[in-house]
Amino acid sequence: MNTRKHAGTLELRGERLCLDFTNTVGWHASDHPQEWLLSYADLLAWSRHAGIVTASQNEQLLQEARSRPALAEEVLRRAITLREACYRIFSCVVQDCSPKVEDLSILQNAYAQAMVHAQVVPIGERFTFNWPGDEQALDFPLWPIAHSATELLLSEELHRVKACPGDGCGWLFVDKSRNQSRRWCNGQDCGNRVRVRQHYQRQRTSRKS
């Protein structure tokens, strides 16, 4: 069994698709971030994991990417550009500062492209946007991501966006807890590391005193 961590196994802790996408970089707030989207295949693996594409769409898009490698590389570049713009925008939201016009423009352009392909579909008693799978459109995975980011910016949940304070982590998430008490991307990961370090520091301080 292959348990190696890769783009298709990353934790989805953001509570919104767009934030899960910004979290495809490990230690995003550090001087040594870990990139998980190293190829178009990685982008598809994550998209499959996040529920954007089906297994059959994944295979068909992979075949299309193999026949058009230059375009696949361009889509990957656009994906990373969109991801980093979203990361900076929502980081500004967390820090209560104004996002750069350039970043908002990147998102706006991606959203405009996405809405060209969107369809309005009924869900129960309401309606929503949906993107029919286009196995020849290599940028198909970017459409729902751009919509998710724009929707979050305009939603009442925007004030619930937080950044994990773990050293260098910087993962973003929507705090859906009732009293807005969530602090970590993962309490068993970043939370435990900080608690262990604080415990060690307290022990050192007590030994010195």
Automatic annotation (TrEMBL):
SUPFAM superfamilies: Jann2411-like. Transmembrane segments: none annotated. Coiled coil: none annotated. It comes from the Bacteria. InterPro entries: ABATE, ABATE_dom_sf, Znf_CGNR. Residues 160-203 form the Zinc finger CGNR domain. Pfam families: ABATE, zf-CGNR. This is Zinc finger CGNR domain-containing protein. It comes from Ktedonosporobacter rubrisoli. The lineage of its organism: Bacteria, Bacillati, Chloroflexota, Ktedonobacteria, Ktedonobacterales.
